[in-house]
Hints:
This is Porin. It comes from Roseovarius lutimaris. Keywords: Signal. 4% of the residues lie in helices and 56% in strands. By secondary structure, the protein is mainly beta. It has one domain: Porin. The chain has a 16-stranded antiparallel β-barrel with strand order 1-2-3-5-6-7-8-10-11-12-13-14-15-16-17-18. It is globular.
Amino acid sequence: xxxxxxxxxxxxxxxxxxxxxxxxxxxxxxxxxxxxxxxxxxxxxxxxxxxxxxxxxxxxxxxxxxxxxxxxxxxxxxxxxxxxxxxxxxxxxxxxxxxxxxxxxxxxxxxxxxxxxxxxxxxxxxxxxxxxxxxxxxxxxxxxxxxxxxxxxxxxxxxxxxxxxxxxxxxxxxxxxxxxxxxxxxxxxxxxxxxxxxxxxxxxxxxxxxxxxxxxxxxxxxxxxxxxxxxxxxxxxxxxxxxxxxxxxxxxxxxxxxxxxxxxxxxxxxxxxxxxxxxxxxxxxxxxxxxxxxxxxxxxxxxxxxxxxxxxxxxxxxxxxxxxxxxxxxxxxxxxxxxxxxxxxxxxxxxxx
Length: 353
């Protein structure tokens, strides 16, 4: 599970990879594509190293009380054949399974999250290969160590297909439309080295796990009068064993109010995860600088999946920049999930270069 530190009011770009001014020390699909857009010829790379400790010190489910220390190491690699054509990949080393007992640097697997060809065609750009279609931004942009936890449920990752990106100017701002057609990755790249997660197969089911690219995602991002927005719709086709196609929509806003950065996002799904149930997600977060190096942030998230109890998440994080590229964060997390309440204290050391 990826964790993100304080983000800026600049919206996290879509698959187009528009410039993102954020403090997050984690490489996302947008960062990889931004690197592809900016690349000339030859090789370029960016790296992110995180070490996180999650201490669940109190929970209604006593079996969930544990201490988990783990790394997340990411590499964004790009090779430009020409100024307009490049091959890009995102590699991730992280725990492949969730902790069930105290854990220290265990269950680590290395996998390729993205491997795609990027082509700048002038008025449009295209991505072809294994990539992360963009749907919403709270899964990356919500501030704090734990602010992204609920929104990560609807992040779309590791799909095979393509995206067409169309930038344009309107209403005094820059905007981008991204249209993606995809299916789930069932190649050898869906497995991992080290701790094996196993190659995905058709019989595993899951939305978008179809014979060919039959799922579609349309996303629009932009800026109007200092407010950044994201709007997306998706239809992910049912896989084996799924009752229905998943259909969803998302809308989010971010804005900087003189240093106080505010983010809000709502997502709704019909036939969530291929079931007959609907699901609603809401995330509200804010961050504020205290000094040049110290920032505080807080997030509240709501998750309501039909047929179960509504879940709630509240977090508070302090982040301190030790030096350029090196950040230390500490956070408190309150969760009310599946009827069980839990309290977590976490720390994160992150270095990006």
